[in-house]
Amino acid sequence: MQLEKVIKVAGAFARKENYEWEGNQYEADIKDGDKVTITDQGTEVTGQYGPQVVFSIKTRNGDKNLPLNQSSINILVDAFGGDTNLWVGKEVKVLTKKGVFAGKKGIAAYLVTNDYSLDDFGELVQGAQAQVAPAQLVPAQHAGEPVQEGVPPFE
Does the global pTM surpass 0.85? Predict the structure, then answer.
């Protein structure tokens, strides 16, 4: 049998909702639109669902750990390069999305550059793509009837 060492990180993980600890009330560590600073190069750890990369970030409540999802990693690699040592000290934006993940209700947090946002469907989009154009309404027609200019389809 082959065994592997399990690596864990010290410190608290960033919370995405208000919480109580030792009788004190705290505001969520990270919220949608927050700016946080990456404070270490990250550590690959064995998480509940397999390996994940956890970074330390400076939040409103001090330094906290945050596992990054692959979407965040892809965006940060494009912006800062693949060497995570170069990410240390970079300020990034937090985007959050409520949903059901792995069968549980929760809040996903994304670390992104300032030019990213979530569209109406909760997908990450960059720059002008974030602006969703209003749908063009096309009048319904009776089957087989010709379209008449200037005449509403149902009178």
Answer: no
